[in-house]
Amino acid sequence: MPGYKIFEERYLNIYKEDGIAPNEIKIGLLDFLRELRGGAEGIPRLSSFMVVGIDEVLYLAEDREKISLSIHKILQSAATTLERKMVEVQISCKGKLFKADSFWLEYRMGKYPMDIIFGTPTRLEIRGLPVFATGFNLSS
Known about the structure:
Blueprint: E1 3-8, E2 25-28, H1 29-37, E3 48-52, H2 54-60, H3 64-77, H4 79-84, E4 88-93, E5 96-99, E6 103-107, E7 110-113, H5 115-118, E8 122-126, E9 129-134
Parallel strand pairs: 1-4, 2-3, 3-4
Antiparallel strand pairs: 1-9, 5-6, 6-7, 8-9
């Protein structure tokens, strides 16, 4: 299913023998957002990305809610194209992910809103490891 698969970096197979295989193209969050803003049409069909650095972006942001809304808006604007091109996107997080009434990331002693960006994803398991999945259409 095309969409975002969000998980903790520690579950990658480079750290855990039976872990999750990283997607082909590793890219930082800001570079990925730049690609999308430049026109997702340039992204090849059936490509697969592993996006890293969302924790650092949220950690360094002065206004986390504002930056989260900006990220959401850019991702949402590219939804149709990413869906049509059947792109796969992993979001790898250094911190710990939690889902209850909301979805958040704990990193460097802070709590960062992931639900503002991704809504309320579905919790899945890949090889017994927790992964949060949501489609590209992030409309609230």
